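WARN retry 2 of 3 for item q-0093 after timeout on previous attempt; input resubmitted unchanged.
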Amino acid sequence: MSRSHPPARPTGPAPTPASPRRHPAAPRSARRARTSRSAAALLSGLALLAPALAAGALGGAAPARADNPTVSLNGLRTAWDAAEADLAPAKVSAADFGRRWSTAVDGAVYAQPLVAGSTVIVATATNHVYGVNAADGRILWQRALGTPVASSSACLSPGTGIVSTPVYDKASRTVYLVAKESEGGAHFSVHALDAGSGAERSGWPVTVQGAPVNSPGVPFNPATSAQRAGLLLLDGAVYFGFASDCGIGTYVGTVAGVNTGTRKLTLWSTESGSASQNAGVWMSGGGLVSDGSGRIFVATGNGAGEGSSPLKGPGDRPGGHFAESVVRLGVAADGSLAPRDFFSPTNNREMDHGDVDLGSGAPTALPSGFGTAAHPHLMVQVGKDGRIFLLDRDRLGGMGQGPNGTDGVVGTTGPFKGVWGHPGVWGGDGGYVYLVENYGALRALKYAVNSAGNPQLTSAATSTEGFGYASGSPVVTSNGTATGSALVWVIYSGTGPGGQNGELRVYDALPANGTLKLRRSFALGTVTRFSVPATDGGRVFVGTKDGHLLAFGRSG
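OK item q-0093 returned
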């Protein structure tokens, strides 16, 4: 992330879509490895979806999940909650569906609320954390952490305390979060709180400090860093990314991980050996992605200087500079991080110069049901220039590795208007991907396999309503994969820069004559940038900039 302000329109001519490459069928051993990895992905990211999908396929009611543990629901970041029979379209249209309660909290809520059983966890930019009763909005516990650091820009005004979405570990009933605190100088602390009481776990917090493994002479600089990307819990460790506070000052992108047992900290820099080449891991609040053990995906923003973006080369031979990239990191036995694969558009330097960074969007891994034998594990990446890249998570594409030096990706759609956020996914009715354009519309992309046997995404519909700058990313609810059960929820930010007159909007997921139908909308007050609602148990939970946690649902 370089600067979070939007360009007026995408710059430059429309890029030529890359011709997708075809690969021979994988050998049996590779297929077994991929099957094993898919199983791991389900355990880490989609295990909660499996019962709902099975129920939906059989035509039965999906069970209540009673947890929403991370931003966009799971490690793949699909934002698809397939266990919400009580958010069926007819029930949302009922006269008694509306705001159930509003609870005042101290500070702006940038983080998505989390649901831990019957408790909603909400964290604020003033470093306050609350446990709230999901049924009636009563505050069960609250905790004030360190004094927040004042923001240097309007991007995270008025302070940069907790502005990323925490992660909830159901096994230990622990909420992990990252707070920027000012005591003794600006620093970041990783906290581990008991979800039932808010008490800090023994041995925590952990201070983020030291030098990245690939930049031993360049220590992490908390003063110029912001931690906005949502946290990831993987293999007993918590991972998170750093960018800047609105591109101000000298900074470099960083990914950090803390082992939850030993509390050992590891750091990796997006710009090896540098403290000033940017390439922040911002992703407009989207979460780090994982599709299985030891695999982490991040997207990076603008670089600074001619050497900050990757040079032409294959993805499995990554260098040390990763501006304008999607990077797959591998986790070693000692917990250290290293790049294993990457994708960067062939015009990455022009993207740097034009402030149309790829990392304004966060990656979303598509679940089982999307993909082909040649490309079974797909990922969607969006960004400021309006292109939608369909990537193979096992072969991201490198830089300039397509025919005649083009992008070596599975497919490219658009360009449309730029995106500050990440897609939501609906796995029923053949598969759809939804995204919110900056000063544009909610757009539905239909998944299909073309005549050449390659996966593709095609624009199928848009909303007639527009969305202001810094509107949020979509969330999809359904009753399994039952046709007609899916809805798309989005937090709308007004046309002004401050998020005034925000709304919670809900759309029918299936297009009708090229249009996504607005089913209902609800007033929210003033909303934060790029905020995402949480769904669980027939309720929708939203945090606001003017210090409230709201719940929507039926009166029963």
